[in-house]
Amino acid sequence: MVRFLAQRLWHLAWVLLAVSVLVFLLIHLSGDPVRLLTPLDATPEDVARVRRLYGLDRPIPLQYWDFVRRALRGDLGESFRYQRPALELVLQRLPATALLAVTTLAVTIAVGIPLGLWIGARAGSAADWGVSLATFLGISLPSFWLGVLLILLFADRLRVLPASGFDSWRHLVLPAATLSVYTTGLITRLVRADVRAVLRQDYIRTARAKGLAEPVVLRRHALRNALLSTVTVLGLQLGNLLGGSVVVEAVFAWPGVGWLMLQGIQTRDLPLVRAVVLVVGTAFVLINLIVDLLYLFIDPRIRYDHGR
After folding, report:
1. Which CA distances in Å does 6 have to 62, 284, 298?
2. Rounded CA gap, 68 and 274, in Å?
3. pTM, rounded to two decimals
4. Cβ atoms 225, 300 nearer than 8 A
5. Integer Rg of the chain from CA
6. Quick one: pLDDT at residue 302?
7. Integer Cα distance of 107 and 193 in angstroms
8. Helix axes 86-120, 270-298, angle to 10 degrees
9. Which tens digits make up the pLDDT trace of 115-174?
10. Residue 180, H or E segment
11. For residue 181, which of 154, 212, 146 has the smallest C-alpha distance?
């Protein structure tokens, strides 16, 4: 167990290093940020002065080394736009994004897993066809389009929910519902496919031959063995929700990390974009580490392999 954790933490450090290099290079290749920090009629001397002020006149390897050295002390630079520490800005927005992501994941687990188990045990039935069609539509709908439709229906026509903001639980309903439609459809289809495959195994026939009730067979034997891939996808979806719900946060004016990153990209705010990517990347890697640890409890064979 300790060796397994040490290996995963070692891999985590290398992944974060690779992410930092990639983000640093991509941001510099996307264009000159100084052009957005200076007026259109700025003289070459003014442009050079701003470039020196932010240290952008030095070679890129030196800029990266300085960035890594300060990042190890928790300093990810100061936002060009907000004139405040970039890490502080990201951490201020992170709770809103985490609330949206956790709510979406909770709805996905509460609806997707039981629904997938239910139709997985009724393959080929009318219920299976109906739910499969609904989940297929849910996966296919673009999130921004669905979000606009929900705003027009519930905020504009029915006037029962707010269209945007972050003041109460009512503001959470529409963005969480928009994100949940895709993730719930995905998990439902995944659980259905895994349960169908598990139900063909010999040990399921043995369990039924022993006289176990069908709900017990499904819950204790089928669902448990179908959970490995589901847990993996849930972990990936949580990571995506923490960093990838940019469009939904923009549609609902949700003050989260995704919207902050979108503003940083539009203004080419290098420290802010780097801070968002590194914080989200760290969260993504830690979530994958937690998923790997969950494997040890779901499948005892994995625990045995790492314990030798």
Report:
1. 31, 18, 21
2. 11
3. 0.82
4. no
5. 24
6. 64
7. 20
8. 40
9. 999 998 888 889 999 999 999 999 998 888 999 999 999 998 999 999 888 888 899 999
10. helix 170-198
11. 146
